[in-house]
Every structure is written in structure tokens, then in C-alpha cells.
Amino acid sequence: MAEIDELSGTDRAGLLLLAVGQKHAAAVFKHLEPKEVQLLGMSMASLENIRSEMVEVVVEQFLEQIRDQTALGLNSDAYIRQVMTEALGEDRASAVIDRILLSRNSRGIEQIKWMEPRAIAELVRLEHPQIIAIILSLLDAPLAAAVLGFLPEMMRPDIVMRIASLETVQPDALRELDAIMERQLSGKSMKSSNIGGIERAAEILNMTESAVEAQIIDQMEEKAPDLAQLIQDKMFVFDDLDKLDDRSMQTLLREVSTDTLLLALRGADEALKEKIFSNMSRRAAEMLRDDLEAAPPAKLSEVEAAQKEILQIARRLADAGEIALGGGGDELI
């Protein structure tokens, strides 16, 4: 079991939920997003050899963080906007805030987040591409990418281009979503919300299977080459991980299994390999080099899947503020 200083933020949250007991932990889970439930559940399942002093430190840190937060519950929208803006900057925070607040007021959106990707695709595939683009923009990128993979092949480039072109969604568009999901959204006194955009389209494509991603980009390059290039400029690919600072790389490596890393590095360039080796202990680096040399050939699809898995971990850590991604554009998260 890692020492308390080596635990990630997710692990600390999982440890805190284990400490408060089943009843209180269940009450917290009711207010979390599906992705958050999954991440916390995995973290809680992996924790072992927990010592009492570790629990005390985590609880003490939690109490310290919330002690002066008297604004919670009072004009919470303004509080969320202020905190997110301070943390992410005004430009990046704007789209994130609108997605958070819009989803919070929508039982329909919350319900769809718990559905299987194939079921969501079946629900929306006969709708207008603009409606599909809005729905995917409101989902977390991994889920949106999975849904995209189940949609008809000819629809995908158009949908991604529409996501990239989205700037705001008007109340009448939200009312169309009401009809699709057969749920009443809060349309009264609702302002236009910022969703979609180039970075959102790039984020979804980053989470899409490599074959589907390549097909979508090829078709977009034929239909709208300028837009396709803007999206590709914002995409973060596996080899871009060599732009991580040493601390971020070390944090990422702690979250990646050895088997996944070994498979992913089959298709990596030498610069990234050296970056990874330099952020491991000498013994671990030597073992990984030896394993790479002795490893049998692997299918390209398996290598790409392993790289996608590591990219998803990197984005999760970046979303949690535990690492900083760079490359591929001005800002990626």
C-alpha cells in the first residue's frame, strides 16, 4: 500500500468514503456523475492495508479544505463559476461551467449518462445531426466517443463537424432535446449555453477508436479541410505525452499497469520511450527495456487500444488537476 503522500486525489477521496461508512458513502454516490462513481469505486476496491493514521490524515485534510467554505449552498451557481474560473481561467472554464449547470438542471441528460453507448446511439440515430451533436457535446468525452462509434459511418464526420462548429445552444434547441429524451428540461429563464467547439470535437475524437477516428478525419478533410485541420491541431496523440513535465509523467506512470504500458510502447517513438525510461527507477527502466526487446509481435489494433487507454488516464488526471497536458494546441483540457 502506498504511503499517504503517494496517494492520488481519487485514492484519497475513496479512502475518505471508506472511512465515513456505507450509509454516508452511498449518500455521496447519489450526487456523483457516472464516471466519478466508476473511478471512485475502482479506487476503493484497490485500496488495501489501510492504517488508522492514513485515515486520520485524509479526514483531517478534508476538514481543513471545507472549514472556510461557507459559500456552499448560497448562490451556488455564482460560487461554481468563481471557483472554476479561478482554477481554469475564463476561456476554459466557460464551456465547462455551462455543461455542468445545464446537466444539473436536466433529468434527461442525467438519465442518458447512465445508458450504454449502443442504447444512446439507437435513441438518437434517427434524429437530425444537429440534435445528435448537441447531445454528444453534453456527454463526457469517453461516452460520446463510444456513442459515435455506434452511429452510422456516413453520419460521423458531419456530427463531429457540427460539434466543432457549436458555440451556444438556445432554449428552443433544448426543447427539442426534451422531445427526444421524453423528459422535461428546465427551459424557463434559460440563457444560451456554450457547448461544443473545436476543442470538444478534438477531445471526443481522441477517445474514439483509431479506425473510426481515421475514417472520420479522412471524410472531414474532403468536406471541410480547414475545419478538419483545426480539429487535428487540437488533438492530443500518444506521442505528445513526451511533452509532459517529469512530475506529471511520474504521476501518470503510477496509474498505468505495466502490461498496458509495455503494449502501448510498441508503437511509440524513441523520444517518448526515453522520456518514460527517465521517469522510472533505473531497475524498472531496465526491466521495461528488456521486456520490450523480448516481447512477441502484437496486433496494431491492440497497441492502439493500449495507447488510447493511457490517453484516457492522462485526461482523467488532467481533469482532476493532478497533471498538466501540453502539445497539440494551446490548451487541451
From TrEMBL:
GO molecular-function term, one example from the UniProt record: cytoskeletal motor activity
Compartmental location: Bacterial flagellum basal body; Cell inner membrane
Q: Which residues form the signal peptide?
A: none
Domain Flagellar motor switch protein FliG N-terminal: from-to ranges: 6-108
- Which keywords appear in this protein's UniProt record, sorted alphabetically? Bacterial flagellum, Cell inner membrane, Cell membrane, Cell projection, Chemotaxis, Cilium, Flagellar rotation, Flagellum, Membrane
For membrane topology, the record states: Peripheral membrane protein
Q: Where is the Flagellar motor switch protein FliG C-terminal domain?
A: 219-325
| Residue ranges annotated for the Flagellar motor switch protein FliG middle domain, each copy included | 117-189
Stretches that traverse the bilayer: none
The UniProt entry's GO CC annotations, sorted and at most eight, read: bacterial-type flagellum basal body; plasma membrane
Q: Which GO terms describe its biological process?
A: bacterial-type flagellum-dependent cell motility; chemotaxis
Q: Which InterPro entries match?
A: Flg_Motor_Flig (IPR000090), Flg_Motor_Flig_C (IPR023087), FliG_a-hlx (IPR011002), FliG_M (IPR032779), FliG_N (IPR028263)
Q: Which family does it belong to?
A: Belongs to the FliG family.
> What function does the entry list?
FliG is one of three proteins (FliG, FliN, FliM) that forms the rotor-mounted switch complex (C ring), located at the base of the basal body. This complex interacts with the CheY and CheZ chemotaxis proteins, in addition to contacting components of the motor that determine the direction of flagellar rotation.
**The protein, known as:** Flagellar motor switch protein FliG
Species in which this protein is naturally found: Methylomarinovum caldicuralii
